[in-house]
Structures
1.
Amino acid sequence: MSLKDPNWFYEKMPDDGTAFGLRIEATLLDEQTPYQHLQVFQTQGFGKFMVLDGCTMVTERDNFLYHEMMSHPALFSHPHPKNVVIIGGGDCGTLREVLKHDCVENAWQIEIDEAVTRAAEKFFPELCEANNDPRAHLQFEDGIAWINNAAPGSIDLIIVDSTDPVGPAEGLFQEPFYRACHKALGEHGLLIQQSESPLLHAQRVTWAMHDITRAAGFVDTKTLFFPQPIYPSGWWSATIAAKQTINFKRREAAEKKNFETVYYNAEIHTAAFAQPEFFKKRQAR
Ligand code: SAM
């Protein structure tokens, strides 16, 4: 079985000499949008599978890990999250998780590429089941511009569920964007952003995110860790930057949550923030 086998899709990480593959049974969509190459496959073992510019995005089988861990730990770390903004997130899975929280009054999803959401509606309808919630506001524009125009102090939580830091997502990992987020967030405001693989990208992305968000005015930053099989190395992270100290503010609410999850619970929340030794050493500098 070679990387050229037409019955397999591989995301290759040439810098690290690794690749991740899924056996595919059919190509369901193959479209060049104004922003990226959008593909959807039917796979043998992971259900439907979305790929953007050759990078794995979402599968039916394992997306719950990412969408739950990008949403619930941050939401339960805020005293009263009412207004939430998702930058990117076009597959709508993060929006669905956010709207499981009754305390959320508004959830904006700012996705630059409408084609991604239309594909999700067709091939991942289960991820889109909250799209018609009256609290949901789907807008198709650049998240950087949207945050720049947000009223100061108007947002409680910003979730950056973007592609990797290249192309339209590149600016989402830079100080001007973090400064704009800091301004848009209220006094207890939190920003959480997917911060790539702790094994492969800590130096280049994860630790840089701590430094850059702190330079932008955030006073506390923490990385949380979770498995994500289809992403490079299978070990993923999200980093929270806060205007006040990050802690499990609504632990009891998490323990008594009134909605279903597949992975997240209060114990997983606590465990996800446990810092690997090499992270501790880096932060002790
Ligand atoms: N979970 C995936 C990951 O970690 O790579 C991300 C899923 S979601 C499909 C990523 C989305 O971010 C894409 O649909 C892409 O169009 C969107 N995106 C990238 N840059 C953006 C920007 N500046 N503003 C809004 N959306 C953006």
2.
Amino acid sequence: MTLKAGVIGYPIKHSKSPVLHGHWLRRYGVDGTYERVELSPEAFADGVRDLVAKGWRGVNVTIPHKEAALELADSVTDRAALIGAANTLYFHSDGTIGADNTDGYGFIQNLRAGAPNWDPTAGPALVLGAGGASRAVVESLLEVGVPELRLTNRTKYRAELLADHFGAKVKVVEWHAQNDAVSGAMTIVNTTSLGMEGQGELKISLESAPAGALATDIVYTPLITPFLERAQARGLSIVDGLGMLLHQAVPGFEGWFGVTPVVDDDLRAAVLA
Ligand code: ATR
């Protein structure tokens, strides 16, 4: 029987997930499909239940459904509960729905793959941005043991909300003081949309970054953002953001189709094409 999965969003036509899962389905010879499903927020819950009734294995969910997906689920992983959003749903044979959030997992796996010597416990992390993606990044960095997490956001209030939620290791830094927060930071992460094609640029100075620090960006259009370019010129290790997208997809594919897929250059090329 053909195993069915997909991605739900609104809009959904720009999602790269069908290319990525399609590549794996072909590579592993799985009798399965991965489709785009467009559902408005009003239609989301009924739409998901309809897919459950049709025997689908599960779905990815993206903007604007990640919080609603968490609400809808019968069981929720600890990390999804902490992040407050889900990106992967599993439809169990008894009709129940399990929710996970693999964004933080993908973020960390990407760093481990791209910078094998990276040690999150070596010193403080600096995270720029306090939006949806930041929640997953912050949760995962705390989980792998960063001793301190400096969080800065243009709208300070959003950073304070995250600090309240994630506890005392998170220290809010004023947006205009971001250059000072670079000092001693061993892991520097951009989670804002700055640096994306057509957006403004991240102005942060990396002059005081310690030797051995790692810089990474969740923006991957362009693959090497101006921030990563400057980090590289400064002698820091850099990891681009595409791998986060690729790695976050692994647990879903494994759960729905029963094969643990590999993230490699072929997959990157397929998604970039
Ligand atoms: P995502 O889910 O991708 O994180 P989001 O929740 O809309 O998207 O968050 C976007 C992030 O980029 C926020 O941290 C936002 O800062 P604000 O909370 O102040 O809006 C940040 N961002 C977007 N445009 C920005 C800009 N021009 N200058 C500084 N930060 C910006």
